[in-house]
Amino acid sequence: MSEESLKLSEKALQMAKAPKYRGAIFQIEADEKGLALVDCKEASLKVYLMIDPEVDEILETRFFTYGGPIFTVLADTFCTMIQHKKMDEVAQIKVSEIEAQLRDAPDIPAIPENAIELAQMQNLIANIVESYPGKKGVALAARETMEKIRYRTQTAEGRAEADKEWFALTQEEKLKRIEDCMHEKIRGVLQGDGGDLEIVELDNAHLKIRYQGACAGCGSATGGTLFYIEDQLRENVYYNITVESVDDPFANPAPTVF
Question: Which residue of 19, 65, 99, 103 pairs with 76 in a disulfide if CB–CB is 3.0 to 4.6 A?
Answer without folding.
Answer: 19
